[in-house]
Amino acid sequence: MKFTHAVAGLSLIALAFQASAAEQTFKVTGEKPTHQIATVESATDFETFVGRTSKVTGSVKFDPATRKASGTFTVDVSSIKTGIDLRDEHMRSPMWLNAEKHKTITFKSTKIKYEKGDNYTITGKLTLHGATKEIKVKAVLKHLAESSKSTAAGFKGDVLQVKSTFNFKMSDYGIKIPDMAAAKVNDSVKINITAYAQTG
Amino acid sequence: MRYLRWLLVAAAFGSGFLLLLSFPMESTYASKADLYQRVMPSEGASLFGDVGELVGEPQQYIVGDPAAILADTTDEGVKLLDQNYIDEQNVSLVQLQTVRFIASQVRMAGIGALLFSLLSLGVIAGIMRRRALAAMAAHQAPV
């Protein structure tokens, strides 16, 4: 009886260990600029412009077996570039993103629901310009185990590709478009984020 | 009044010319434009079988340097532009939608200026006619 209990206990411990071992922590350190990108796109009749930055950091806990995940991403506001220096300067100013006061844009997941394939629906809190709102976005999470190919590509450990595209209104976060810029900047902008997080 | 009339005639011709010119100018740009998707090739993208990270939505561009155009296309057949090359070489990218927007603004301004000129010329013609009639009447009045 004691032996049976011992075996059962050891099995439970082994199962628990296996479950926790399957979950991995993937990090986006921002060290290599080509390993992550965040873009913000504004489309009006006059023009469509895209702001880009590779200064994205974050971490994702992901279990490839159970598809359970959670994560946080941070974007450096002052690093966003649109291709025109004057426009970048305006964007960083207090009239727009106020980069000096609100240095980062962050997204922290509160719930990640697996859909099918590599597709997920993520609910989380987006903090921008000092305001935080709960949003729901679609995302793709693709896991790749460590291999000679991933090492040759400059990655350490397993790699997790995270991709998401979503829209938000700047006015929802307290950013009011000046009348003179109304024809050039849309209140509704599209965010696209792609990151290659790694366990090593 | 005479000088004002000539000025308005010149303005009417000028705005009419600008109005007409906007059409072939827009067509010239449109003939050089094509639909492109900007992408940033990267090690991560190729590791997962992608050409690169997408930069914005596909747009119609006039591309200043054909070397920026990649050999691949999207699944929908849209041509790809190498954003890394564009950044390094400072390649000129003109959006067709911007050209069309400016052309439409020029046409609206041209129509407005043309109508104003013609209207003003009409008013001046009316004033001058009344003056001429008044002068004739004064000349024919019995002494």
Verbal overview:
The complex is a heterodimer of chains A (200) and B (143). With 200 residues, chain A is α+β, with helices and mostly antiparallel strands. In chain A, 17% of the residues lie in helices and 46% in strands. Chain A is built from three helices and ten strands. Chain B starts with a helix and ends with a helix. The relative contact order of chain B is 0.17. The model of chain B has no long low-confidence stretch (mean pLDDT 90). Classes of the chains: A alpha+beta (200), B alpha+beta (143). Chains A and B meet through β2, β3 and β10 of A and α2, β2 and α4 of B.
SSE blueprint and pairings:
The complex is a heterodimer of chains A (200) and B (143).
Chain A: H1 2-22, E1 24-28, E2 36-43, E3 48-53, E4 56-63, E5 68-76, H2 85-92, E6 104-114, E7 119-128, E8 131-144, H3 148-152, E9 159-169, E10 188-198
Antiparallel strand pairs in A: 1-4, 2-3, 2-10, 4-5, 5-6, 6-7, 7-8, 8-9, 9-10
Chain B: H1 2-32, E1 34-40, H2 43-47, E2 53-63, E3 69-73, E4 79-82, H3 83-89, E5 93-95, H4 96-140
Parallel strand pairs in B: 1-4
Antiparallel strand pairs in B: 1-2, 2-5, 3-4
Helix pairs in contact in B: 1-4
What keywords describe this structure?
heterodimer; A: 200 residues; alpha+beta; Lipocalin; ten-stranded antiparallel β-sheet; 3 helices; B: 143 residues; rod-shaped
Helical fraction of chain B equals 55-70%
Strand order of the largest sheet of chain B: 3-4-1-2-5
Count of alpha and pi helical runs of chain A: 3
Q: How many domains comprise the coordinates of chain A?
A: 1
Intertermini distance of chain A: 44 Å
Task: Compute the number of strand runs of chain B.
Answer: 5
Structural class of chain B: alpha+beta
Strand content of chain A: over 45%
Strand content of chain B: 15-25%
